[in-house]
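Changelog-adjacent note: as of this version, every example in the card shows the full chain rather than a window. The one below runs 282 residues end to end.
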Amino acid sequence: MFKTVADHGSIIRASELLHCVPSNITNRIKLLEKELGVSLFIRKGRGLVISPSGRLFLGYANKILSLCQESQRALDPAAAPSGLLKIGAIESSATGRLPKLLSKFHQLYPSVQMQFSTGDWSQLLNDVVDHKLDGAIIAVNQDHPDIESIEIYMEELVLIASSAAGHVHNPQDLSGTDIFMWPEGCPYRKAMENWLQAHGVVSPVTSIASYGTILGCVSSRAGVSLVPRGVFEQFRRIGDISGHVFDDLHPIQNYFIWNKNSGPHRAKEKFAELLVEEFKDV
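Full-length structure tokens:
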């Protein structure tokens, strides 16, 4: 009950999802607060805002619920994958690589309820560490004591520009050109910045957290960008975009990560196996 109220900020909404009367939830939350000796929520108008103590407790609640789910799975390890599977991915993977795979996974394991989300690699890593996600696809290999990972594919980098702009022969052709990239922390942005710096090229970089917007800017001749091959292939036919590959723009490894302390999870394990199988030739 606490987690549902915390997730939705409303006892009324929680009562609808949990199929019980609001007064029952209110009383249970009050009893929990009395037992813990802290206020878990701050009452604000008709809604609730989680308190600092509530945010701390929510982290433990997520772990407790994760352990409950794990215990149920552990009782029948031979059963077909089922239950809830929470997977996250960076936007480039979600856009360029995963749509067909997610469809295939659903066809193979229809009893698995998939919850899929996107985010930047640091948020995805934190969510896996905190047991909010069962696994995630990122493009940065992290040496974290709670994380295990497998390599799934190398993502070739493609410089994209409007077809009307002509061929980009070398980095110097980009001098002074507007460059549209994801915000700081994106490994593809870092690769672009390092490449330009290595060739002594200075160009302004605009942060845009949307591949759709980036591709729209490029197709309208406003500038260029560096994107993964999967994103380029997905959108190349939509808006008059040409791609340019350079030998010293090296491919970037993508990984599937999970929390090694989460225990057996057949749905997650089958998802990892499918990732490896589907992308073995990429």
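Structural remarks: Residues 52-74 form the longest helix (23 residues).
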